[in-house]
Structure formats: structure tokens, C-alpha cells
Amino acid sequence: MIALLCTVPLLWAAIMDYQKRIIPDWTWIALVLIGFVSAFLLPAPALYERIAGLLLPGICLLLLAVRYGGIGGGDIKLTAATGFCFGLNALALILFFALIPACIYAAATRQRSVPLAVFLCTGAFVYMGICFAVLR
Questions:
Q1: Is it the case that residue 120 has pLDDT exceeding 90?
Q2: Whose CA is closest to 82, among 69, 103, 104, 97?
């Protein structure tokens, strides 16, 4: 149920990132709020895993953005919020399902700038689909 609530902000972030290359702040704030509420309603993932999912990718992407550039602040905040909502382990799978198509897209279109929210949304949907298929 909580995963379904995440679809609206993720989908909106993907649409806006694809069209305008901007991620609205309300999308990542909504994900953090959904993650915060679900942390008290659901036993898994644990709060420490959610905090790790927020801090670890957030700090790593921030350092990469400062050092090399090319990563927008919206991408950093959305990835960190997704990590808080789903937890660090789930975020690793989401990024796996997101970064492979993102790299293929970048190579096929010969673009250096990729709308990461589109692929993060795709990865989250693949992850949620797998979770729903396993639970059935």
C-alpha cells in the first residue's frame, strides 16, 4: 500500500524531469513524508535502514556533483528520498533497475545529461512489480 502512494510523486518527478529537466520539491518531500509515516506503520524496512538509504546515496551523489558536476540537486534529493522511503537494500535494487536503462539511453542518444528521475521511477516500478509478484 505504501509503495502505491510513492507512485504519484515518482511519476510526476519523472514527467517533469523529462519535459523540463526539473524535479519539483514537493515530490521528494512527499516521498520523505510517506517514508516517515510508513516507518511507524510498517516493521520493515527498519528505521536505521531508511536513514542509511537517505544519507548514503545523498552524500555520495552530493560529493560526485561537487567534484564532477552533471548531477542535479533534484536528482540527489529524489534519490535520497526514495532511499528513505524504501530503505537502503531496496534502493540498491531500484538503482540497478534504473541505471542500466539510463546508460543505454545515454549511449543511444549520445547525451551527457540524462533525466535521472525517469529511470529512477522506472526502477522503482520494476522493483514494486517484483515485490507484488513475489507476495502473490
A1: yes
A2: 97
Q: In the chain, count H helices and then E strands.
A: 6, 0
pLDDT at 1: 66
Q: How confident is the model at residue 93 (pLDDT cuts 50, 70, 90)?
A: very high
Are 14 and 120 in contact by the 8 Å Cβ rule? The answer is yes
Q: In 3D, which of 76, 83, 82, 77 has the Cα closest to residue 61?
A: 76
CA–CA–CA angle 39, 115, 59 (5° rounding): 50
What is the DSSP-derived secondary structure letter of residue 110?
A: T
**Which residue blocks in 42-115 are alpha helix, DSSP H?**
47-68, 73-86, 88-109
Q: Determine the Cα–Cα distance for residues 44 and 90; give it in Å rounded to an integer.
A: 11
DSSP SS3 for 115: coil
Listed in sequence order, the residues at least 6 apart from 92 whose beta carbon sits closer than 8 Å to its beta carbon are: none
pTM of the complete model = 0.91
